[in-house]
Amino acid sequence: MVPTSEWLSQWERQRDKLKCPVDLNDYFILPEIAGKQLAVMDIGPTSIPTGQILVRDPLCYLGHIEEQPYFQTAPVGIYSTEVCVVKPDEEGDCARYAAVRLRFSDAPAVRFEEALIGHEDISGMRDGEFFGFNVDAGLACICDKQAHQAFCDFSSRWHKEHPDGNLYDDYFAALFAESFREHPQYQRSGGDWVNWRIPGTEYHVSLFQSGFGDGAYPVYWGYDQAGEICQIVVQFIYIQLAYT
């Protein structure tokens, strides 16, 4: 979506409201936050052929072709999908994915600011609010616009071939279970992530659990010292707030 000049002017004036309240670098550097032990794992490549990025629940929203990417773009390439994991605890809670990021360069991020599509009403934001994206099936993914088109094509073909089928139960569940068998660390037995190549393409998309499950979650661009986008981070758990 191409924002209007009026919206862009408002965005420039209101950008302080969009700053992340915590330094998300800590999620991928520190061994512990708020008494919770953390780990970082690489779950495989994500293809970014155009630089136009969406973050969506793949089962509930990604299949709609009208879904729009963020108005700012990332460098084109193939990037490792890094997950910040809150390790299982002695009380029996499973591993929780607190954040997922792609790093587009080695330059460190000096600030994080919420990613927007370009139609949001920024002027109405209050402290502690964010726009984010909705999760209704416990999963999320970072997806390039071209890969999004390929996913929509795949989903349409699959449903035509399986008119009574369920895309998760009859297709993805087996892939998640295989992911667990091959990489059991920080996954539940049904699988919590899968690095998937969209059939008929070379595009890789990672699907992963959304922290505490269904809800709304913010997405942040990371900017380097020169003001260039160097990361995108999906924050599922505000660790400092959730565990203190």
Descriptive report:
The protein is an alpha+beta fold and about 240 residues long. It has helices at about 5-15, 25-30, 145-160, 165-180, 240; strands spanning about 30-35, 35-50, 55, 75-85, 95-105, 110-115, 135, 140-145, 195, 205-210, 215, 220-225, 230-235. A hairpin with a 5-residue loop joins strand 12 and strand 13.
Task: Identify the notable features of this structure and list them briefly.
5 helices; single chain; 244 residues; 13 strands; alpha+beta; seven-stranded antiparallel beta sheet
Structure summary:
This protein has 244 residues and is α+β, with helices and mostly antiparallel strands.
Instruction: Please state the average pLDDT score.
Output: 95
Could you tell me the radius of gyration in angstroms? 18 Å
What is the string of helix and strand elements? HHEEEEEEEEHHEEEEEH
Largest sheet: 7 strands, antiparallel
Secondary-structure map with pairings?
Layout: H1 5-14, H2 25-29, E1 32-33, E2 36-48, E3 53-56, E4 77-86, E5 96-103, E6 111-114, E7 133-135, E8 139-144, H3 145-161, H4 167-182, E9 193-197, E10 204-209, E11 215-217, E12 219-223, E13 229-235, H5 239-242
Antiparallel strand pairs: 1-2, 2-4, 3-8, 4-5, 5-13, 6-12, 7-11, 8-10, 9-10, 12-13
